[in-house]
Structure formats: structure tokens, C-alpha cells
Amino acid sequence: MAAPAPKPEEISHPAMDQLQGLEYCIDSNPSWGEAIALGFQHYILALGTAVMIPSFLGDKVRVVQTLLFVEGINTLIQTLFGTRLPTVIGGSYAFMVPIISIIHDSSLTSIDDSHLRFLNTMRAVQGALIVASSIQIILGFSQLWAICSRFFSPLGMVPVIALVGFGLFDRGFPVVGRCVEIGIPMFILFIVFSQYLKNFQAKKLPILERFALLISITVIWAYAHLLTASGAYRHRPDLTQINCRTDKANLISSAPWIKIPYPLQWGAPTFDAGHAFGMMAATLVSLIESTGAYKAASRLASATPPPAHVLSRGIGWQGIGILLSGLFGTLSGSTVSVENVGLLGSTRVGSRRVIQISAGFMIFFSMLGKFGALFASIPFTIFAAVYCVLFGLVASVGLSFLQFTNMNSMRNLFITGVAFFLGLSVPEYFREYTARALHGPAHTRAGWFNDFLNTIFFSSPTVALIVAIFLDNTLDYKESARDRGMPWWVKFRTFKGDSRNEEFYTLPFNLNRFFPPS
User: How much is the pTM?
Assistant: First the structure.
């Protein structure tokens, strides 16, 4: 006798507005002790990028301290007044193209004194950031970005959110490979603790799942220190030493005990139209990458997608964050830290309070130089191993938006595939070309134009957004509203469209009276 045919509900899974299976959502909080430990874990993870960004500069310690200090302030601002999502606002790689271009500017390279050259470079970057921040401030607070977001559908956002994670593939295993003996054990340990041993409990707390990052970093860091101390790297090439040794960063000895960063600490910013224009492209890229990351964070915090005006408000405050980066001199603009969004998923804690505590740690340790420098001596390979998991997790959250679309539609398959492929392929061409020719494919006499184009096309989510949104809004879009997932999306567009929005996104201190949601 043949087995009975499975019922339709046994085959498919119903679409879910909010991700299930999280221990704590955006507005539920773990106990204070657990929240502080989780906040410290987010701080350690944010350190990786903060230490990497200024790695090609003079006074590295002060730049790292300033970057962390401003990160802490921006994270607090964003979680209180911005989108209110549990997102760490960190430094951004999107600003690297225009910043490297400023560093190589002939007016700066001609300065012989290295310290003077460093100070002048910092001031030039500051000026460019201050001007460029106006883009996000204007687009955000004028609600222009909310109007633009009307053209976004679940289908169009899938490649954008997914490539916020996948687009960072060169920060994952290629970096692990530079020091395999540390990277691979870290990768394996993190997966074993966070996934296979997640049901191990101590005092009713799944301690290995919750603190997999802290525990595995401590174990592998000690192991790396042992390798360094035993002389395992004594006669190895310089590159191996930089990536593997725990004493190579030279940060601890040169860090002051107490140093409070303050605005204009490098001197008065200098303004140059060409520099500012190149930096504006990076602000646009950061805007698009953050939009994708905010949508991923809302899912991993078990919240509903942020309404258009909340997203726009967050972008406005992020612009203020870039303005602060320019005033303090952090050598980078700010954007949502993708790895910290991934950590929400791996710990299954999407609590806003945890992120606010981590912002407190950033501000505190950025003033206590020696302690911050101690944590900053963790080899970057250890972070890269964790990125392999966390960036992948953020990317898969992007893919999860496909559940609201019809993937049996040829049109949808075409748009998704082309946007994904170009989102990976175009930046890869730009990267390869730059590595070979030492300048980007856009190489005219107008430096600002080169910086603008090279920055835009270096970013996977940005290319994906351009392709996906264009195709999604020009190919039979009237007939395919249901296929694109619009009926599901539409109720989350406005604040009043869904009763849960108020619970997740209302401003604190009764501020909604002064800024009524649209």
C-alpha cells in the first residue's frame, strides 16, 4: 500500500513576521550580570574592526582609542534616538577608498616630517568627513530616505541584505589563511561551543552558547600567546609574525594609562572639495549597507521590519555619527557593525540593553588606554575566524526574506540571480584591478570622480541595490506586487500600520509627542 500523500502544510512552512527561537527580543532583557557579560562580548567583537581600520597610520593607538570612543557615543545615540535597534555603530571599510586617496594626495606626500604629514592627513580626512556627513543628515532627517524606501520590496532587499554579509567574504577565510594554526582552531571551537554544545547549561544558563565568543577567544588567545612565547615564530616571514604573534601589535607599551579623546584633537580640519566629493560616495555606500544591516538586525532582534520613517530617522542620526567621527578624527565614517548583528543571532539575544552596555564598555576602555590596548593585541586572525560564521549568519537572514516572495516566478528568479551575481562580480573586478594597477578602473584626471565611482562599485550591497531596485521597479512591477511580497511589506511601512511598531520603535522619554511618527 502506498504511503499517504503529505499534506501541503507538511511540505511548506508558513511565513513568519518575526523570527522565532530567540531567548530575548529587542525589549526583553537578560539579568544584569548576564547583560553586562554579553555587552562585554559585543565590545570585544567590535574591537577587531576598530584595530584593523587605522593599521596603515602613524599614531595608531590614539586613533583606535578615538574610534572606540566615538563608536560608543554613536551606538548609544542610535539605540536611544535612531532606529532603536540593537546595533553597534562601528567604523566602516566603505571609507577606505577616499581615505587612501587623501593619504596619497601629492600635497600631503610632499611633507617630509612624518608626524606633521600624519597630522595634516588627519585634518584633511576630518574636513572631508564633516562635509560628507551632510548627505546622511539631510536624507535622513528630511525623510527623503523614507520616500526612497517606497521602491524597496522584500524581493529587492534580499540581495542587498544578503550581500551585507556575503560581500565581506574577503575579510573571512583569506585572513584566516594568513595564520592557519590560530584561525582554524578558533573557527572549530566557536562552532562547537555555539552550536553543538548549546544545550549545555550551568545554573539554567546555556553558558557555552551565550558566551561562545568570549570563551573561544580566551582559549585561542592563550594558545597563540603560548606559541609566541615558545618562539614558534622566531624565524618565520614578517607577514606570518604580524598575523600570528600576540606581542607584535606594539600597542600596550605605547598606550597611555588615561587619555580622553576630544574634538579637534589633531588640529583644525582642512577642507578640499575633491576630498569631500569622494567621501560623499562613501557616505552613500554606508547609508545603503546600514539599511540592509538594520533590516537584518530587526529580524535577529525578533522585531518587525523598521517602518520607513524610523529607518530614515536612524540614517539621520548616523549622519550625526559621521559628523562626530569628523570632529574627533577617527579616520573612518560610521556604519552598522555587521559582525555584531551576526552575534545577536549566534547568542540568540537581541536585547537593546546589551548593546547599550557594550557602548558603555567602548567609552570606558577607550579612556583607559592600557586596558584597551591589551584587548587590542588579540591577533586579527582570531576575529576573521568568527567573521566566517557571523557574516554568513547575517547573509542568511537576508535570504530569509525570500519567504515573503514567490520564488516560482521567472521574473523573481531573474532579478534575484542577476543582482546577486553582479553584486559579487563587479566589486571583485574593481578589487582585482586595483590590486594589479594600484588604482581603480575609474582613472581620469579628476580625482574626485575616480574616488566617487571606485567607492560605489567596491561595495557589494550598493551594486546589488542599484541592480535589484532598478529591475524590480521596471519589470512588470504592476502585475507582480504579490510576487514581490508587497502585500506583506505594506503594513510595516507606516508606524500605525502594525500595532507592534509602537512597542519596538517608540522613542524614549515620551519624545514621540514632539516627533510624531508618520
Answer: 0.93
